Amino acid sequence: MPLRIHFTMEDLARTRVADGPAPCIELSSAARQLQERSHQVRLGAWRHRTLSALHPASRMALALMPPRGRITGFLSGADGATPAELLEQIRSTPRIRLRASLESTARHQPLPNWAHRLSDEPLLLRQLCDSLEHVAEHALVPHWQEVQAMTAADAAVRSRQVLNGGVETLLGRVNPRWIRWRAPVLKITTISGLDADVHLAGRGMLLQPSVFAAEAPIINLDAIPQPILTYPVARLQEAAIAPLFASFPSDDGRTAPAIDAIGSALGHTRAAVLSAIAEHPGCSTQQLAALVGIAKASASEHATTLRNAGLIDTHREHRTTAHVATPTGIALLNAPSGRP
Predict the structure, then answer these.
(1) Mean of the pLDDT values across residues 234-251?
(2) 205 burial via Cβ count (<10 Å: 0-12, 13-18, 19+)
(3) What does pTM read for this prediction?
(4) Which of 23, 78, 89, 199 is 20 to 30 A from 276 via CA?
(5) pLDDT tens digit string along 119-174?
């Protein structure tokens, strides 16, 4: 049986989509994916590259972020806006919260012996945080711009769903393989097989798009101020076998673009089109044409060329489109020489 979330009118009014990625969810989900062998087409290259770069100390972090089961609260509950802020918050976790979090996790699943000493041994906690930072530096930070871009693209898709059919349409399409909306109940199938009825009592729900939580939903019913439902970004649902991070960062940390493709793509009008998309993420082709002052057919043609060059992504919802610049496109615009 699925988990059943009961909505009132107040809950529907207060349900919203997060306006950006959650570093704690992305880091913990990435750590889980590193320990899995699923999604080889989508994640295989990223997984191989990341695992090859990790040193043995990373095992501390991975031990507290197992592929199945709970992730202890002081790791999953931090709310830093960037990976760096997340890690800083974890390093400064108060001892009393650290102890309570570990005791709560231990009631549901075994912990490594050393984990029970974290709240009493500052050096051990520092080693764990160094391990987390090492995992983040290789698994998440090099791809953070792309994670942000994919989340922005998802926000454009979800905004159009709400505009065209309201929050109920959004709930029905957010992850249809695992989540079904049967008013006034949202039925969620979880990997753990959780079977329960939950009443939101006017709190509503935060829908959190994720790149690394690439399939099954993750639900945090204890989150404050409202429960959080994590789902894969729209791009992963539209192209389930597409590889993620096909272009790995170069040595200076920027995504290495296909220079020949960029050279053939850019001209005065296409540069204006790319700039308009970067400044108005989620714009439709009709809106893009108006922003640049060209015909809709011309805007569509230029968008196709930019998409083929890897400078933008386009998401389709019924008869409308939503264009978003990719990290490569943004890097191109920001480069003083016009070439990242």
Answers:
(1) 57
(2) buried
(3) 0.78
(4) 23
(5) 999 999 999 999 999 999 999 999 898 888 888 878 878 888 888 889 999 999 99
- Got the DSSP string for 89-144? HHHT--HHHHHHHHHHHHTTS---GGGGGTTT-HHHHHHHHHHHHHHHHHHTGGGH
Cα-Cα-Cα-Cα torsion 211, 212, 214, 217, nearest 10 degrees, comes to: -100
| Contact by Cβ (8 Å): 191, 3 | no
Angle (CA) 257 260 262, round 5°: 60
Token pair recorded at residue 329:
């496109």
Please name the residue that has the structure tokens 């529907």.
12
Tokens of 77: 């509950």
DSSP secondary structure letter of residue 318: T
Token digits of residue 252: 């200076």
- ∠ CA 182-187-189, nearest 5°, is 145
CB atoms closer than 10 angstroms to residue 232: 24
Give the span between the Cα atoms of 249 and 153, in whole angstroms: 20
More confident residue, 68 or 85: 85
* d(C-alpha 16, C-alpha 226), whole Å: 10
The two structure tokens encoding residue 114 = 């050393």
Spacing of C-alpha 122 from chain mean position? 31
Secondary structure (3-state) at 320? strand
Token duo for residue 55: 């040193």
201: left (phi over 0), alpha (psi -120 to 50) or beta: left
- The position carrying tokens 């940390």 is 253
Q: Return phi, psi of residue 339, to 5°.
A: -145, 115
The per-residue b/e assignment along 48-60, b for 16 or more CB within 10 angstroms, e otherwise, is eebeeebeeebeb
For residue 287 the two structure tokens come to: 């809106």
